[in-house]
Write a structure and sequence with these properties.
With 139 residues, the chain is an alpha/beta fold. The chain has one domain: 3-Layer(aba) Sandwich (Rossmann fold), CATH 3.40.50.2300. A five-stranded parallel β-sheet has the order 2-1-3-4-5, sandwiched between helices. Helix 2 runs parallel beside helix 3. The relative contact order is 0.15.
């Protein structure tokens, strides 16, 4: 499972990627701003994007909108240090964010990634076999 981590802080990207690696996620990509995140998403189509809200060049909301325009099923987890401002989380969810995680408190990050990974696995397991009506992949 490929995961893209987008944050303008090199420290935060490294910290999040270390947490992911320790949890067994090793196919990791990184971007330092929203525009790079969109470009990398377009090239590699990661299963999950973990993205900061406040970034230069293109902010997280702008990048979220562009990624969702490319793929409405994209799984994007947004991180924000403005968690006390409920309207931000509502705005992000309203534009298709799968989850909003408050920085720097990442205790919900790995459980959130695991939940999305499980949903993606179940979708792949149960998706219809192409060209065969009513049949599903069950292996």
């Amino acid at each position: 499972m490929r995961i893209l981590v987008a944050d303008d802080s090199r420290f935060m990207r490294s910290y999040i990627m270390k947490m992911l690696h320790e949890a067994g996620y090793t196919d990791l990509l990184e971007a330092e701003n929203g525009l790079k995140a969109v470009e990398i998403y377009k090239l590699y189509r990661p299963s999950i994007v973990i993205m900061d809200f406040n970034m230069p060049v293109l902010d997280g909301l702008g990048a979220l909108k562009k990624i969702k325009n490319m793929n409405m099923s994209a799984k994007v987890m947004m991180c924000t240090s403005m968690g006390g401002q409920k309207w931000i989380a509502e705005e992000l969810i309203g534009h298709g964010a799968a989850q909003v995680i408050e920085k720097p408190y990442f205790q919900n990050l790995i459980p959130g990634v695991n939940k999305i990974a499980e949903e993606l696995f179940m979708y792949q397991l149960l998706k219809p076999i192409e060209g065969v009506p009513g049949k599903q992949v069950l292996f």
